[in-house]
Amino acid sequence: MKKRWKRRQIKGGEGTTLVELVVAMLLLGIIMTMIVGILSPAARLFLRMERLQRAQVILDNVILELQGIADNATGYVNIYPQGQQSPVGATGAGAGGMLEFINPDNYVTLISAEGCQATDILAGGAKIDSVEAVESGRLLARYYTRDVASQTYQYADASGSPAARAVAAVFADDYYMGNYLEVTFSYPAGVSAGGGVACLEADVKLYSDKEKNNLVVQESVLLYLRYAAVRKDEVTAGDAVTPP
């Protein structure tokens, strides 16, 4: 015997009214506002910590590069005052943003994050190439041919334009992720002109703005020298070379 199914009519199913829908949307909006209010500080904190972590990684790699660079310093070490891009006619200081030394290949090496003007690349006294200006906040290495007799090097070509044997940015611009580097080199206490230099001090900072007002991360380290070197404060750079 088959059972018969009966349809039952549900009474009172008129649906949701417009007023009820509006009230529900208002309540949902209030709840979402409360949730966003709770999560926003947490989200900002997360982004801040992530940016700080990235900046610390950048700084750590810069320090590793500086340690490797200092490992090649020999002969003498010269430090130029902060903010100085050109060493022409300048004497050394106890601390500053540009480091000069002789590398094992007998090239004068300038290390800084102070930037530099557009520079001609010379080989045998003749221009073979040129590089664009480098803005401040990027770690930069420049190399110069040293005159052994005079113990000096020439910073410019015959026209007076900055010139070098080679110019190399240690990292690409994108590597800094919008941050700007500042490095201050200094001698340990007690190292005077003519005295031996076993290590250098470096205060390394990373800023979020080009004007360097907003400090993100900072660290001070010792850069040990592998080879014997002395502090030299005398003028070592000239302003022109003899035309080829």
Structure description:
There is one protein chain. The chain has 244 residues and is of the alpha+beta class. It has one helix at 18-70, and strands at 74-80, 95-96, 98-102, 107-112, 119-123, 126-131, 140-147, 152-154, 163-164, 166-169, 180-186, 199-207, 215-224, 229-231, 237-238. Strands 1, 3, 4, 7, 8, 10, 14 and 15 form an eight-stranded mixed β-sheet that branches. The protein has a four-stranded antiparallel β-sheet with strand order 2-11-12-13, with helices on one face. A hairpin with a 7-residue loop joins strand 12 (199-207) and strand 13. The longest helix is centred in the first third of the chain and has 53 residues, at 18-70. The protein is elongated. The model has no long low-confidence stretch (mean pLDDT 85).
List the helices and strands and how they pair.
Layout: H1 18-70, E1 74-80, E2 95-96, E3 98-102, E4 107-112, E5 119-123, E6 126-131, E7 140-147, E8 152-154, E9 163-164, E10 166-169, E11 180-186, E12 199-207, E13 215-224, E14 229-231, E15 237-238
Parallel strand pairs: 1-14, 5-9, 8-15
Antiparallel strand pairs: 1-3, 2-11, 3-4, 4-7, 5-6, 7-8, 7-10, 11-12, 12-13
Note the main attributes of this structure:
244 residues; alpha+beta; eight-stranded mixed sheet; four-stranded antiparallel sheet
Please give the largest β-sheet.
8 strands, mixed
Q: What sequence of helices (H) and strands (E) makes up the elements? A: HEEEEEEEEEEEEEEE
Helix content: 10-25%
Alpha-carbon distance between the two ends: 117 Å
User: Which segments are poorly predicted (pLDDT under 50) over 5 or more consecutive residues?
Assistant: none
Write down how many β-strands occur, each being a DSSP E stretch of 2 or more residues: 15
Radius of gyration: 31 Å
What number is the mean pLDDT? 85
Beta-strand percentage range? 25-35%
Overall geometric form: elongated
Structural class: alpha+beta
